[in-house]
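On clarity, I found the account of how folds are encoded harder to follow than it need be. An entry of this sort, consisting of the sequence and the corresponding backbone structure tokens, reads as follows:
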Amino acid sequence: MKNNKLNRVSKIKRETSETKINVIINLDGKGKNNIKTKLPFFDHMLEQLSKHSLIDIDLICIGDIHIDAHHTIEDV
């Protein structure tokens, strides 16, 4: 019997003049996460999304938060 399970994992790197983002998302995960954006409330909200949707998220974002949080949130 053939296993028809899809591999629903995506890895993305995105770099702009305002942010550098590395993210791995597994849609068929267990709600595990490692999220670091240096914006505590934003991290918390993404962690809750991961936990309650059972999507694994590994996300590191280095943004120009010394200027404003806008670009980090928008780009993520």
Observations:
- The beta strands are 9-15, 19-26, 33-36, 56-63.
- Helices lie at 40-53, 70-75.
